[in-house]
Amino acid sequence: MISPFLVLAIGTCLSISIVPEKEKDPKYWRDQAQQTLKNALSLQDLNTNVAKNTILFLGDGMGVSTVTAARILKGQLHHSPGEETRLEMDKFPHVALSKTYNTNAQVPDSAGTATAYLCGVKANEGTVGVSAATQRSHCNTTQGNEVTSILRWAKDAGKSVGIVTTTRVNHATPSAAYAHSADRDWYSDNEMPPEALSQGCKDIAYQLMHNIRDIEVIMGGGRKYMFPKNKTDVEYELDEKARGTRLDGLNLIDIWKSFKPKHKHSHYVWNRTELLALDPKTVDFLLGLFEPGDMQYELNRNNVTDPSLSEMVEIAIRILSKNPKGFFLLVEGGRIDHGHHEGKAKQALHEAVEMDQAIGQAGTMTSLEDTLTVVTADHSHVFTFGGYTPRGNSIFGLAPMVSDTDKKPFTAILYGNGPGYKVVGGERENVSMVDYAHNNYQAQSAVPLRHETHGGEDVAVFAKGPMAHLLHGVHEQNYIPHVMAYAACIGANPDHCASASSPGSPSPGPLLLLLALLPLGILF
Question: Per the entry, which co-factors are needed (predicted)?
Answer without folding.
Answer: Mg(2+); Zn(2+); Ca(2+)
